[in-house]
Sequence to fold (595 residues):
Amino acid sequence: MTLTSAPMALGDSGHQEQYHISGADALMDSLRRHGVDTIFGYPGGAILPIYDALYKAEEQGWLKHILVRHEQGGAHAADGYARATGRVGVCFGTSGPGATNLVTGIATAQMDSVPLVVVTGQVPRPAIGTDAFQETDIFGITLPIVKHSWVVRDPAHLAKIVAQAFLIASSGRPGPVLIDIPKDVGQEMFDYIPIEPGSIIPSGFELPQEPNDESISSALDLIERAQSPLLYVGGGVISSGAHELLSGIANRYQIPVTTTLMGKGAFDERDSLSLGMLGMHGTAYANFAVTSCDLLIAIGARFDDRVTGKLDTFAPRAKVIHFEIDPAEINKNRTADVSVLGDVGISLAKLLDLSNQRDVKPKTSNWLTKIESWKNNFPLMSPPKEGEIYPQEVLLEIRDIAQDAYVTTDVGQHQMWAAQYLLNGPRRWISSAGLGTMGYGMPAALGVKAALPLEQVICIAGDSSILMNIQELGTIAHYKLNVKIVIINNRWQGMVRQWQESFYEERYSASDMLNGEPDFVALANSFGVDGFLITERSDLRPALQKAFALNGPALININVRRDENCYPMVPPGKSNAQMVGLPESSEMPLEFNAE
Fold:
C-alpha cells in the first residue's frame, strides 16, 4: 500500500516516519519500496490478510497481481520474470499445500541462481506446532533450497526482514529466499517504521570481495601464453550483465567461446568465435575443443556433470582459470591453476583494463583453423525435407521467423534441440538447467510476458512437459498475455525413451504418452486460447507465421517424427569427445579415437 497518513513523531529524533498499520499493509509497503510492481500468486486462508492488503495496493495502481492456477506456476512465473529482467521475482502462496506446491519452483531457482522472494502464509502463531489445519513447516522443508529464510514472529520485524530478503536474494550468487508470515502477524496492528532498500545489512552478511589484482594478472599471463585457449561460459555472465566484457576479451585475444545451457545468450551465437553449447548434447566442435584446449577459461560456470562428462577426461590437457563469485565452487569439481573470486563482471573489467596496458598478439590462428574444420566436418544435423516433420526443422523455422524472441523451454529432447539450434541474445534464453523441471516453460513464459509486455515471447514445450502445468493456459487467457506455445509433439517422454533405447535394450517402460494424449487444440480453445495443429511440412512455416502474428496467445501443436533422437550425445561415463550420433560421413579426429 502507499502510506498517505501523517507520520507520528518518534521520540526526539524527528527523522523517522511511523504509521499505525497492520502487518500485511507493512509488508506491501516494504515491497513497494523495493520496486516490486508484479507479484505472482494464489490466495488461501492463512495468507488472506496479505491478499486484502494486496487488493488495496492494486487499487492504488502501483502493483499488478497475476493470479496463477497453481502455486508451482507462480514460482516459475516469478523465476521467468527475474531471468528476463535481472530483477528479483516475487511470488505468494498460502500455508500447507500452497506452500509445498512452491517447493519445486524454489528448488529450480536455487539450482539456477535466480533471485526470488517467496512469501508464504502460515497458521496463527498460537497454532504453530499443533498440527493445525493446513499447517506445514515450510521453513524447515525449504532450508536446503534457499539462501535464507525467516518465520516472522513480530510484525515490527517485517520491514527489516524484507530489506534483508531483497539484499540476500540479489547479491553475490543470486538465489531464492523465503518469508513465512503467520496469519495473525498479518492482522496485527502496530507502529510501522519504513526501512529503505539497502539500509539494513544482515548480521554476518558480506558482499562479494573485490577480485584480487594478482590473480587477474596471473590469469592474463596464462591467456597471453596460450596457443589453444577456450572460454567456457556459464550463467554467471548472464547474472552479472558481463556480455560486452566477455565479447571484448574473446575478440581481443581471438578465443573461441562455448557456453553451458545456463550461459546461452552470454555471447553472440552468430559470431564466428561461437561454438554453441558444450556437454552431453553440445555441439561436436565444442566438445572436441574442450578436449583439445591448452587453457580453459571458466567464467561463471560450475563444472556441472552434464557439461564435463567423465570428469577426469574433461579438458585433460588444459590449465584452468576459474572466474567465479561463489567461493564454494572454486576447486569443487576441477582444481583451478588460477582462481579469480568476485563478481565476474568486475573481474572481466579489470582483466580488460590490464590487457589494455599490454601489447596483445593473439596466437590462436592455427587453433581457429582446426576448430573451423571441426565445424565443417561435424555440423549439427540438417534435417531432410522428406517424410514426417523433423523436430530440428521446427526449431530452424522458429529461429528464422522469430530471431529476437524471448524463448522459454520445458525440459527434455525439445529443450536440447532448442539449445542447439536457436540463437539467443542476453537474457532471451530461459530454461530450467540444474533441476531439469518439466512444466517450467509455460509459466516462465507468462512471467516474462508480464514483465516485458512489448517483447515477443515463445515457449518451446514437449507434449509430456506441457501437461505438468497445462492449467496455466487459464492464466495466459485471463490476462490476455500474448505468449506463443509451440509443442514439439512426438507422443513420448522423449528423453526417457531415448535413454531406454540406448541403455535399456529398448524396454520402453512407462514412457509412451500416445494413449490418453489430449486434443491440445481443443484444450487450448476451451481456455479461450487459439490453437493450431500442424501435421504436414508444407503447413509448418505458414502456420507458425500466422500464429506468431496473432495479437494474443496461441498454442501450436506440431506432430513430429516419433523416434527421432537428440544427437550428438555423450553417453554416461564417457569423455566429451566420445559422442554418439555424429554424421556418418565424418571421421573421428585421430586424437580422439582412443578410449
